[in-house]
């Protein structure tokens, strides 16, 4: 029960925010409340008299906080009215007169009797009393017809031709607003904290079933009906659910579901509302998965699945030397409130195997200092010099740091279509969950993921030039991370500059490929964008380097003649230097190149373009 305990305490620590719209536009729901998209808004005055009604066409305005009961909050069939705002069949007393729906009158009777019990309490809010007074008149359908919201056929039946937000009129959700001189600004019942409090006090007084609460260990009103809508307002999947009493759910283990789990109503509501709120504010909700990292005390936390630039800004420092120190300082400086043993961090990942069941695929609770230390370790050991375009500008910006896990997966498994690199959602979801232990527990990168990235980087013609550069850099970061993981030296840093003393055959072949690419590309006329022979033969070169290098070199000879004398001397000296570094003939006759050749290619190309003023270009050329 660790996760629900952490969420319950998070809610308790954030109670002053309940019912308030925060800076992200989200609301921490009160207990006993949920959200629903409304299609029609009805305005009445404090005397319960109809004022006006209108359609809610904008879905951004449609989200409505509504009070719910245990039954209505989990209803899928049957009659289970919400206490205040609900569908037209529940709130309209004259619905049965204009519908051929079976048991139409029973929906309204169940609703109005439930609302009457709330209104009979001493603390019932006067806005709720006004709604009750209006709906008792049973004129809602007639009022909506007069306002042109709905229409009737010749038999007086509601016509369902014109939909509102894709919902037929007879199924529309109705919300209420007080329009009165004595109710300025706060007439929206779904945004009124006093109305929230009135319902919570009333509903808690109706709960009679008491049992041991597994969260607090106390005897409290408990529930076996837990909220849904965790990931979004249309989400029907639940984290806690038990409705199979005739199957194999408890066989051989428990007599009933209460023996398996018993959770207090308030504790369940607060935990689920906190989780929903956190996911909306700072969660990762894509590809069918939901991942969230938060601090129980409510302190600011870094986005777990972001790159270094988004988490800590652009890190200065020399590549391969001081960037790791600068990165750690930046992370600890921005999130210093978390850097102590008493601050608690929680990470959860959820996935829905079916539409009704939400599983917890990853859970970890740790102190803030350990969390920051592991995050800093990830960003420093997976760091590389990465480029990006900012705000759709043509200028290319760079930073030193770790790429987004999502981009690492695209580098490994992505395929480009129409300039966009993508992977299947299921593969992305599974891969993200595989990377979580790498970020949070210092596990090494999956070898198959690194191999796949190397394979894709060896197929440059499969990508557009901008994507080719981006995923080459990300692949270099993954290879560097793998080297550091295998060395088991946490103080080792990525080598982003040319390794002149590296005599490994794979690395040297990568340097040779970079020289051939640069020699040809600098002879291109302005605006000439064709591919070099080095680029076109990269895939074959990675599989058979010795034979393919002879082909590439022969095709490079004509371009060598176009070089200036100074350029020719520069490249001849560079090629001689690299060729002489092969320690023996065996290092030349390699069957296949490993990821080191990509590092050699990147390092040598950067060295060429940065060192010689007469040679201009970029890796992407």
UniProtKB/TrEMBL annotation:
InterPro entries per record: CRISPR-assoc_prot_Csd1-typ
Domain of life: Bacteria
Name under which the protein is recorded: Type I-C CRISPR-associated protein Cas8c/Csd1
Lineage of the species this protein comes from: Bacteria, Bacillati, Bacillota, Clostridia, Lachnospirales
């Amino acid at each position: 029960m660790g996760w629900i305990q952490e969420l319950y305490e998070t809610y308790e620590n954030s109670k002053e925010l309940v019912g308030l719209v925060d800076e992200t536009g989200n609301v921490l729901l009160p207990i006993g409340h949920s959200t629903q998209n409304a299609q029609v808004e009805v305005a009445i005055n404090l005397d319960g008299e109809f004022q006006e009604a209108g359609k809610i066409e904008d879905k951004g305005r449609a989200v409505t906080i509504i009070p719910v009961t245990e039954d209505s909050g989990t209803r899928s069939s049957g009659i289970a009215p919400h206490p205040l705002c609900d569908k037209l069949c529940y709130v309209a007393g004259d619905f049965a007169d204009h519908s051929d729906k079976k048991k139409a009158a029973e929906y309204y009777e169940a609703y109005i009797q439930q609302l009457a019990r709330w209104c009979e309490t001493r603390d019932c809010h006067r806005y709720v009393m006004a709604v009750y007074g209006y709906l008792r008149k049973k004129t809602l359908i007639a009022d909506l017809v007069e306002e042109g919201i709905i229409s009737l056929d010749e038999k007086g039946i509601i016509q369902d031709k014109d939909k509102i937000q894709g919902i037929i009129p007879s199924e529309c959700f109705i919300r209420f607003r007080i329009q009165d001189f004595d109710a300025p600004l706060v007439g929206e019942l779904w945004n009124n904290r006093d109305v929230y409090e009135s319902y919570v006090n009333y509903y808690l007084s109706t709960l009679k079933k008491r049992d041991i609460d597994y969260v607090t260990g106390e005897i409290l009103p408990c529930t076996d009906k837990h909220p849904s809508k965790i990931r979004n307002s249309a989400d029907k999947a639940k984290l806690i659910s038990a409705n199979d009493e005739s199957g194999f759910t408890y066989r051989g283990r428990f007599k009933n579901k209460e023996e398996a789990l018993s959770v207090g109503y308030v504790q369940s509501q607060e935990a689920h509302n906190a989780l929903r709120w956190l996911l909306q504010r700072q969660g990762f909700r894509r590809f069918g998965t939901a991942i969230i990292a938060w601090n129980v005390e409510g302190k600011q936390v870094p986005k777990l699945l972001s790159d270094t630039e988004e988490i800590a800004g652009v890190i200065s420092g020399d590549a391969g030397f001081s960037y790791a120190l600068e990165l750690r300082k930046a992370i600890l400086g921005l999130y210093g409130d978390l850097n102590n043993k008493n601050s608690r961090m929680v990470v959860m990942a959820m996935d829905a195997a079916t539409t009704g069941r939400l599983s917890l695929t990853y859970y970890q609770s740790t102190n803030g200092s350990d969390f920051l230390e592991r995050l800093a370790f990830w960003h420093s050991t997976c760091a590389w010099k990465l480029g990006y375009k900012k705000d759709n500008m043509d200028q290319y910006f760079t930073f030193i740091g770790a790429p987004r896990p999502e981009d690492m997966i695209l580098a490994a498994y992505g395929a480009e279509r129409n300039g966009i690199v993508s992977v299947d959602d299921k593969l992305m979801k599974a891969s993200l969950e595989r990377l979580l232990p790498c970020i949070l527990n210092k596990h090494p990168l999956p070898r198959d993921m690194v191999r796949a990235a190397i394979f894709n980087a060896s197929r440059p013609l499969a990508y557009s030039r901008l994507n080719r550069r981006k995923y080459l850099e990300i692949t270099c970061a993954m290879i560097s991370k793998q080297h550091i993981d295998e060395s088991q030296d946490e103080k080792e840093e990525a080598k982003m500059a040319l390794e002149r003393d590296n005599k490994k055959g794979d690395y040297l072949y990568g340097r040779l490929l970079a020289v051939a690419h640069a020699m040809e590309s600098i002879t291109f006329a302005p605006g000439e964008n064709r591919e070099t022979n080095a680029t076109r033969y990269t895939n074959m070169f990675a599989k058979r380097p010795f034979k393919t290098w002879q082909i590439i070199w022969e095709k490079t000879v004509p371009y060598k003649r176009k070089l200036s004398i100074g350029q020719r001397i520069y490249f001849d000296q560079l090629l001689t230097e690299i060729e002489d570094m092969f320690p023996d003939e065996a290092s030349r006759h390699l069957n296949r190149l490993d990821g080191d050749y990509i590092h050699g290619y990147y390092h040598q190309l950067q060295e060429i373009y940065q060192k010689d003023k007469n040679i201009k270009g970029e890796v992407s050329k």
